[in-house]
Design goal:
The chain is an all-alpha fold and about 120 residues long. It is built from 4 helices and no strands. Helix 1 packs antiparallel against helix 2. It comes from Thermophagus xiamenensis.
Length: about 120
């Protein structure tokens, strides 16, 4: 009698780290947001600029490596909140309502973070 055992641990890829979005992803995201909120060209350009600036800030923080993980997570969360506030300042009241709903939906779609 022959026994066959599948060792799946060898087939698994190491868990990839989630990196900050690159400029291509940001452009796509802002384009989608522009469609969903009916942004003007000026709003779209300013929002894209805000997101790109945040991306550079996040990259610099990650590359510096001097922050511990928890502190970096807190800084990124604070940066995200600041970005949302700045975006809200650019929107009309109707767009603000839509944006708030979109952000809530996206937040609810994220899987819970694993405990470490």
């Amino acid at each position: 009698m022959i026994s066959v055992t599948n060792v799946s641990a060898q087939n698994r890829r190491p868990q990839e780290r989630r990196m900050a979005p690159d400029s291509t992803q940001i452009i796509k995201m802002v384009d989608n947001l522009a469609k969903e909120l009916s942004l003007t060209d000026t709003q779209k350009a300013k929002i894209k600029e805000l997101h790109l600036a945040q991306m550079e800030e996040m990259k610099a923080n990650m590359e510096s490596g001097k922050n511990d993980r928890e502190k970096m997570r807190e800084e990124m969360e604070e940066s995200r909140k600041e970005l949302q506030e700045k975006v809200m300042e650019l929107l009309t009241n109707e767009q603000k309502e839509k944006y708030t709903k979109l952000m809530e939906q996206r937040q609810n779609q994220r899987p819970p973070r694993p405990q470490r």
